[in-house]
Amino acid sequence: MRILFAGTPDIAVPSLKSLAGRHEIVGVLTNPDRAGGRGRALVPPPVKTAALRLGLEVLQPDRLDEVVLQRIKALEPDILVVVAYGKIFKNNFLSLFPAGGINLHPSLLPKYRGCSPIQAAILAGDEVTGITIQRIALEMDSGAILARKTIELDGRETGGSLTGKAAGLGAELLVRVLGDLESGTLKETPQDTGGVSFCYRIRKEDGRIDWSAPAQIIERKVRAYNPWPGGWTTWGDKRLVIFRAAVQESTSLPAGGKTPGKVLGVDKGRGFLIQTGRGVLSVEELQLQAKKVMDWKSFLNGNGGFPGSVLGSNT
């Protein structure tokens, strides 16, 4: 089967590699290189890097205009396979594929249609999420379901770790679906529109911690937005990202007037203890602006004034 593969971030790379070993990839559609890092040098998307190593033709248009459509048509693809490409397809594009298009979505559709289903599941405290392979439709993530696989959550997942797990399992599921499609045994099930929910593109500001929220909510935010944009706050005039934290049911330290964001002290087994709107959050790993990620002991060595301060405050 002749495949045009469309994808951009790391989550799409295992699928590209798995399909390249079993099918003919006639081209790889991905986003343009973007400026990144301190030097603002152009950085290729992970899918481009993987595609070039596989010796595949790469297309990186800003827009899917008529010139691009003609170039793709000349490749004579049978089917479009999408994993986190990042753009909406119109009918004139989808009509280029005789066998249509399929998409890997890291949630149990129709739950969490949209851009950030992995983070949404962690933020909500879900006990289970999953992967869905669906038909591509004009309405976002509304196509018929071709296959699903559940993922049990234990409450320790981060956005990064769950993305990695979904990437591997999704690649396996895609291979199976394409095999069923070729053999004529693939079954399609319309989505139950009664259970639709949505998630949205993550912004840097979404990671800001509201210390008046319960400790449980803040802990989920820290995990969901690890590695980006990070669950972050401010300490004085500097940005402080928290990478590892836990909810503390009880502590022997005073509540410090119950001031949300106050660093109550240090527990040798749990790290910094920070008051929240309900409960105490322990912080084991963090990163001060322009510094490297540190465990709490290393951070304390260079920042002795941290205990007793109030995070998220400019005073």
Order of helices and strands, N to C? EHEEEHEHEHEEHEEHEHEEEEEEH
What class do helices, strands and sheet pairing give?
alpha/beta
Mean of pLDDT: 95
CATH architecture annotation of the largest domain: 3-Layer(aba) Sandwich
CATH fourth-tier homologous superfamily of the largest domain: Formyl transferase, N-terminal domain
Helix content: 10-25%
Q: Taking Cα atoms only, what radius of gyration do you get, to the nearest Å?
A: 23 Å
Profile the largest sheet: 7 strands, mixed
Output the CATH topology of the largest domain. Rossmann fold
Strand elements, count: 17
The N- and C-terminal alpha carbons lie at a distance of 63 Å
When the domains are counted, the total is: 2
Under CATH at level 1, the class of the largest domain stands as Alpha Beta
Question: Which blocks of ≥5 consecutive residues have pLDDT under 50?
Answer: none
What's the gist of this structure?
This protein is an alpha/beta fold and about 325 residues long.
List keywords for this structure.
six-stranded antiparallel beta sheet; Methionyl-tRNA Fmet Formyltransferase, Chain A, domain 2; Rossmann fold; alpha/beta; 8 helices; 2 domains; elongated
